[in-house]
Amino acid sequence: MDRHTFLGESLGNPLNMNFFVVGAGASGMFAAITAARQVSRFGATVHVLEATRKPMKKILLSGGGRCNVLHRPLPTPRDLTANYPRGHKELIGPFTTKFTQQDTYDWFEEIGVPLKVEEDGRCFPITDSSETVANALRTEAEKLGVDIRLGCKVTKVMPMKDREGNGWHLHVRQKNDPQETILAASHVMLATGSSLIGHKLATDLDLHVTPLMPSLFSFRLQSGHLLEGLQGVTLPDVELGLLCCNQKGKKNKITHKQRGPLLVTHRGLSGPAALKLSSFAAKQLNDTGYTGALTLNCLPAHVTQDMVRDELHAFANENNGLVTGGKHSLYPMHSYIPRRVWQAYVCSVVGHDRVRWKEMSKHHVAQLCNVLFNARLAFVGKDTNKEEFVTAGGVDLKDLHLQTMETKRWKHLYVGGELLNVDGVTGGFNFQSCWTTGHIVGQAVSASISKR
């Protein structure tokens, strides 16, 4: 493409109303579509610049190729924002009222992407294909006249002054072309996701940017741990806590807790409880080098250890068989604790799995009760969750007017999606952040252009 004719109208007329989105991800595409539905009648144009040749890459990869579009609508705004470890306080307001979960669901249905709600609340296209979502977004954008340019890396965004107000110069480098094109824009949105390109652009514009750090990952446990060899086993309801030493290193305290199902992997722990814990404790885990200790409570639905200890004693008085039970026999709390986990716990207390109930001393029962409520598991690293690739960090929300996602420092510069220091737990919440912030930006740009 000739750099002199590439979007030449905006070059020749820097005061022309145009909206440039930097990044063709979920939030950027959504903002472009939202704006394009309204600004064409004012003679304005919408352009999307994507550095790679693959737009909406995360959409295509998410949910194992199925794309978890959103989580089913939750009862209150606080129920929604509670799923965002960073941003849950600030997002109460425009984020939860201007484009809700129900709005998202209806929007995709309207553009021809029927959705289904699964038992855990995740919403997927009925085709179970992320390509359905990506293709629908691109089709909708092109139908509205959005100009999508691939292989166009924005290296610099610079403010300019003209007689009618602020504008922007975008320095763009096309793939395999060492020279840059300078484009003029009236409105710009940074929507580069977790790419470091966006962080540099934002930093160069004096925005506060929190460095990236991993979020939503599995814990790699130290060899020889209590659950070793039980990969594939799922505990249906646990409370997983993160231990932290005080400054003197003499006393441990639990700094974060999360409850939910837990999956034992060949190297450690995954599943909702572990992933949510890693997300809410992302900074602490990053600061400690992803080493430390976890506490595992297998019986969070039981009120006290005394109640469980009484239940164990009662079971012992009524049974003379093996404490670990036979293949088809019952054992205490069997609806909460998988058989293989129960056997591992018993062995950790008595040293083998052939002990009978009548041989269990009060001390053994107390020990077993304690490990059921408070097992200690040392971890020595992290593993990426195969279906998630989420990072914490990005442009701080305090730099933005949250009603419009416009920066406080620069007029007509907007930020949205994963470039923000906002991240959600697994289940469609990260995409909801992208759809909502993209919609807010698109609406704000449309309103601004209509007044000029």
Beta-strand percentage range: 25-35%
- Overall average pLDDT: 90
- Residues in helix, %: 25-40%
State the separation between the terminal residues, measured CA to CA: 31 Å
- The secondary structure category is alpha+beta
What form results from the Cα inertia axes?
elongated
Whole-number count of domains:
2
Question: Class of the largest domain in CATH?
Answer: Alpha Beta
Question: What is the alpha-carbon Rg in Å?
Answer: 27 Å
- Major sheet: 6 strands, antiparallel, barrel
CATH topology of the largest domain: FAD/NAD(P)-binding domain
Oligomeric state of the chains present here: single chain
Relevant CATH superfamily of the largest domain: FAD/NAD(P)-binding domain
Number of helices: 14
Lateral strand order in the biggest sheet: 12-15-14-13-16-17
CATH 2nd-level architecture of the largest domain: 3-Layer(bba) Sandwich
- The count of β-strands is 21
Parts with pLDDT < 50 across at least 5 consecutive residues: 1-15
Fold and architecture overview:
The protein has 452 residues and is of the alpha+beta class. The chain folds into two domains: 8-213 and 391-450, FAD/NAD(P)-binding domain (3-Layer(bba) Sandwich); 217-384, no CATH class. The protein is 32% helix and 27% strand. It is built from 14 helices and 21 strands. It has helices at residues 8-12, 26-39, 57-65, 77-81, 94-97, 101-110, 130-143, 196-204, 272-280, 282-287, 305-318, 339-350, 362-374, 429-450; strands spanning 18-22, 45-50, 70-71, 115-117, 122-125, 147-150, 152-162, 165-174, 180-185, 187-190, 209-215, 217-221, 234-245, 252-264, 268-270, 292-297, 375-384, 390-395, 400-401, 406-407, 413-415. The chain has a six-stranded antiparallel β-barrel with strand order 12-15-14-13-16-17. It has a five-stranded parallel β-sheet with strand order 6-2-1-10-21, with helices on both faces. A three-stranded antiparallel β-sheet has the order 3-5-4. A hairpin with a 2-residue loop joins strand 7 (152-162) and strand 8. The two termini are 31 Å apart. The model is unreliable at 1-15 (pLDDT under 50).
